[in-house]
Write a structure and sequence with these properties.
Number of helices: 8
Number of strands: 24
Strand order of the largest sheet: 5-4-13-8-9
Shape: globular
Helix content: 10-25%
Distance between the termini: 46 Å
Oligomer: single chain
């Protein structure tokens, strides 16, 4: 049912706005007050619209933004539609800020256990056969909990999806004559942290890419401009941005990041190292906090993804996990990619608890927090947490996150 809008704009205000717009056109684009801020919205059939510009813009009524901190910016998952993340809303995570790199001076060195150590310029990389694929990147620390007033963006907004374009790393390995005895390679970035990770050659040969474009344009600086390593399905920090060096070897390098930071505490005082794949996960983005719903039919919507393959199905519960129904998956269902799901549900107006659970084509089912604790222990670190996420719908239609204790 359409809501009535009792806040009618006076005819005089509309005429004033029209006059302002006309004046703007005559004066060659002089700025006038923002109609969204002033509340003066002219009749679009009575005012000359804006002329074509050099860059497209969002409607001033749509203002999705990343939630930023000193080291990261989280994607507003609850504000997005479909599976592609707009480039400017793609999550970012940096270890020493975003470097400014001149593409004319960019170089990628590949050396070590290779026949022909080579320095590639950006122009060189673009001369090789290009490939594009749609896939997600997710930070391994992508989970937060603690309070009911958390949005999907705050809970797991460190995942985003783009169409990535570049040259396959396997092409470059063949070009330099990588040794068949090599088992690892070091990827090194150009940021002030000189971020480095050891990566199995098997992944490099299989589907790794040196990406220089994102969603049809040059890759954004926050995503690694002018080129980054892209490892579909693997934890975000291994997808080295601003990549400048690859060293081929027969052993891992045991770098600072992979020994002191990106490791996980598990049971019996052990540490799990080299946790590459991002496990299957899902989250309902509607309804979610701070949205409100009304009694009746509701389409539950969200995204699911797995670093091990395709999403096989997404199960939905509207009674706190007692019963489950399969959601409808929207095509295309791609390998190592966000998949959009929906489920039609009739809410009777009583308090309810809704949740989603992803299952990928390896048979892996997204776990509950208790299952993660049982498997890894209560002292597990903050990486690779992918618990089922629940939302509480109150009698008045308000939606709240259901936080869970980890210890």
């Amino acid at each position: 049912m359409e809501e009535k809008n009792d806040k009618k704009i006076p005819r005089r205000a509309m005429l004033k706005a029209a006059a302002l717009s006309a004046t703007t056109a005559l004066m060659g684009g002089v700025k006038v007050p923002d109609p969204v801020k002033t509340g003066v919205i002219p009749d679009p059939t009575k005012v000359q619209g804006a002329v074509p510009g050099k860059l497209g813009t969002r409607s001033p009524f749509e203002q999705p933004i990343k939630k930023a901190s000193e080291i990261s910016g989280r994607t507003p998952l609850q504000d997005l539609y479909g599976i592609i993340t707009p480039s400017d809303l793609h999550f970012e995570r940096s270890h020493a800020g975003v470097p400014l790199i001149d593409p004319q001076k960019y170089e990628l060195l590949i050396h070590g256990m290779v026949e022909r150590p080579t320095i590639f310029t950006l122009k060189d990389l673009k001369r090789f056969p290009a490939l594009s694929r749609i896939a997600f990147i997710e930070c391994s620390g992508n989970f937060r909990t603690g309070k009911e007033t958390m949005t999907p963006q705050e809970i797991c907004g460190l995942t985003s999806q783009s169409e990535w374009t570049g040259v396959m790393l396997s092409t470059l390995f063949r070009e330099v004559g990588a040794s068949p005895k090599a088992t690892w390679f070091l990827a090194e970035g150009s940021d002030a942290a000189v971020m480095t990770r050891s990566i199995p050659m098997e992944k490099g040969w299989k589907d790794a890419m040196i990406a220089y474009a994102q969603n049809g344009e040059a890759i954004r600086p926050e995503q690694g401009y002018p080129a980054r390593l892209f490892l579909p399905g693997w934890e975000g920090n291994m997808n080295i941005k601003w990549i400048r060096r690859i060293e081929v070897s027969d052993q891992p390098f045991m770098t600072r990041e992979e020994t002191s930071k990106y490791t996980e505490t598990i049971k019996d005082h052990k540490i799990r190292q080299f946790s590459f794949d991002m496990d299957a996960r899902s989250i309902i983005t509607y309804p979610s906090y701070p949205q409100e719903v009304e009694k009746g039919w509701i389409e539950i919507r969200g995204i699911a993804w797995s670093g091990r393959g395709k999403i096989e199905r997404v199960e939905i519960s509207t009674d706190g996990g007692k019963h489950w129904n399969n959601a409808v998956l929207q095509e295309p269902v791609l390998d190592k990619a966000h998949t959009f799901f929906r489920h039609l549900w009739r809410w009777d107006g009583n308090p309810a608890e809704i949740m989603s659970r992803a299952v990928d084509d390896t048979g892996y089912r997204q776990p509950f927090m208790k299952q993660l604790i049982d498997a890894r222990g209560s002292d597990m670190g903050g990486y690779h947490l992918n618990p089922v996420t629940a939302w509480l719908i109150e009698r008045d239609g308000k939606v709240l996150f259901k936080p869970e204790k980890r210890k």
